[in-house]
């Protein structure tokens, strides 16, 4: 049984466990099998915050649960509300680290953007998430708790989480097992029951785990942070490209498409004067020609610690036009939460400055 335990802690989080693992635990502790379903229902449908609230369980079973597990405690350090409805949380963890979670409002429902690591070691030069490096992986339960806590906020509005994007701080495919456990919990019909096709995992191109993900046989969407049309430029912007070269990433994308028949999304952050010239668009179109894919152009967010500027509006549209002319499906991402530092890592970076001083 997979029991993900934090440093210095002896008990796993209850949200680290799948229904099947809870069923095994119930059996090991000589409890009736149906109790596992009750526990799962309390966690994901009723969304309680303690075992004491699981009132249809015997007190003896609640005591066993307390002895065996912890609830994930996400302490709300900061909550920012954007004029466009976006809500950004900075949550404190049990070990004094902090993570970000974002609720985004769309005309098709509410999306939650979750974090998979405390910090990030991928090192993209335009991203605030990498400031300070990687501190640790989150457990599956700590990722789950971000969605459950977001759903509690939406419960008060009579709404629900309709989609999830794993695009917060960290590289999910460098925390693969926890990410996959999280995904299985999210799509479970007796849990939050979020449709697999309403979930997107974004990776910077960790090739071995892109292959593993293709072989998982899920309907979950895959997005690749590409940000450049060639090795030389991509290595400058994304040091991870030196470990997993551009050609290998593209080959893994072809494998994924062949294996699943599903379309891949390529995320391309446009940086003024760096990767946003017409020749970059032409080169990218050549690389992606004929591929079952979609390009999402992202005007880069200004990060004070970085020295990049945003691509001018007309140049963004020109980049889009070139790709369209070459028959590459492309859109420009609608910005959300721009007034509340909603880009990955920005709020946490400010918090780190304050606490370290």
UniProtKB/TrEMBL annotation:
Binding site for [4Fe-4S] cluster: 120, 124, 127
SUPFAM superfamilies associated with the record: Radical SAM enzymes
Active site: 100 (proton acceptor), 344 (s-methylcysteine intermediate)
Record-listed S-adenosyl-L-methionine binding positions: 170-171, 202, 225-227, 301
One term of GO molecular function: 4 iron, 4 sulfur cluster binding
Keywords: 4Fe-4S, Cytoplasm, Disulfide bond, Iron, Iron-sulfur, Metal-binding, Methyltransferase, rRNA processing, S-adenosyl-L-methionine, Transferase, tRNA processing
Cofactor detail note: Binds 1 [4Fe-4S] cluster. The cluster is coordinated with 3 cysteines and an exchangeable S-adenosyl-L-methionine.
Cofactor entry: [4Fe-4S] cluster
Gene Ontology biological process terms in this record: rRNA base methylation; tRNA methylation
Pfam families to which the protein is assigned, alphabetical: Radical_SAM (PF04055), RlmN_N (PF21016)
Protein localization: Cytoplasm
Highest taxon of source: Bacteria
One term under GO cellular component: cytoplasm
Swiss-Prot/TrEMBL catalytic activity: adenosine(37) in tRNA + 2 reduced [2Fe-2S]-[ferredoxin] + 2 S-adenosyl-L-methionine = 2-methyladenosine(37) in tRNA + 5'-deoxyadenosine + L-methionine + 2 oxidized [2Fe-2S]-[ferredoxin] + S-adenosyl-L-homocysteine; adenosine(2503) in 23S rRNA + 2 reduced [2Fe-2S]-[ferredoxin] + 2 S-adenosyl-L-methionine = 2-methyladenosine(2503) in 23S rRNA + 5'-deoxyadenosine + L-methionine + 2 oxidized [2Fe-2S]-[ferredoxin] + S-adenosyl-L-homocysteine
Enzyme class: transferase
EC number: 2.1.1.192
Domain Radical SAM core, first and last residues per copy: 106-339
PANTHER family for this protein: 23S RRNA METHYLTRANSFERASE, RADICAL SAM CORE DOMAIN-CONTAINING PROTEIN
Family: Belongs to the radical SAM superfamily. RlmN family.
Function: Specifically methylates position 2 of adenine 2503 in 23S rRNA and position 2 of adenine 37 in tRNAs.
Cited HAMAP family: RNA_methyltr_RlmN
Anything else known: Reaction proceeds by a ping-pong mechanism involving intermediate methylation of a conserved cysteine residue.
Protein's name according to its UniProt entry: Probable dual-specificity RNA methyltransferase RlmN
